[in-house]
Amino acid sequence: MPWSYHLPTQITFGEGVFRDIDRWWLAKLGRRVGLITSPSQQARAVELKVCARWDKITSNPSVATLQSLIKWVKSESLTGLVALGGGSVIDSAKVASVLACQDISLVEALTRKTQLVARHLPLIACPTTAGTGAEVTKWATVWGDDLRKYSFEHELAYPLQAVIDPELTYSLPRQITASTGLDAFAQAIEAYWSRNTQPLSQTLALRAIELIYATLPKAVDQPKDGTARHDMALGSLLAGLAFTGTRTTACHAISYPMTAHFGVPHGFAVALTLPNMLRFNAESFVNFSTFVKALDADSIEAAAKRIEQLMQVVGAPTTLAAAKVPKTGLQTILDEGFHPDRVIHNPRELDRQSLSEMLTKIAN
Known about the structure:
This protein is an alpha/beta fold. It is built from 16 helices and 8 strands. It is globular and about 55 Å long.
């Protein structure tokens, strides 16, 4: 069956590569380079020789924040951007890199009411988590004022360059290491079983699954372990490369209202339904025997239990109650997490009743 894979982003990976960013990559961005980052990265940000800095991006930034960012980029007459931070920072920079060169609003872009012109600012993405894969995808998550998740998607949103330095993750707190690691783990698994999967995506996904499953506990418990941080950064990159060709599936769709309404960290929210979604999908995705071996298992049930054990080891909640989602929240998750256009990539058709039963199983 024919398949294709496209990635215009150049990737540079390795310990210490961030220290060479001024010498090797900033010249590609023109004379006026702007930095987009978060308050937590201010110490690192001063190392970069840029003309302007915006350090106001926090987790899950609002539409108002992104509108202010776009306005700032326009006002500074920038010729290129650097994003230094986690998924929220890189996603925000991707949105700004495109919409600062357009004559339409963010809301118009999200509702796809107007076509974009082929103009954008080149972007270098430097992830400080492992990870979201945002440095190698054309999507950006935007949280609306209605607490719903919207996707900004365009070929122009691909970063020009991804600079992935595992050393940037050494200072990550335990919970963020665990949550972002589980996000990458889920991305890889969903890329493997997606309806859109193909040989290259499956190969990338399998290696990501193996690396993250073997390494995440050590990265959480021993944050200065260079080998663990290297392997997690590589696993996150491979997961991003895998799902950029497939999109994510039901686990991600279901997770968004958990984060928006109840504050569950994104990676923990995605992982909550992962074991039971694996059980649900078992009869519908191919090459499952190869998949379960990546988790050192010999059956779907054993693989699902391996995922549950991994979640427990890294301190992730395994029930909605443990994630502080009240019983009254199940209906909200069902109403907002079930969108046919988002779950359509799941290998087995998921209906509201099946999702309701799954949420009930993990309620307590």
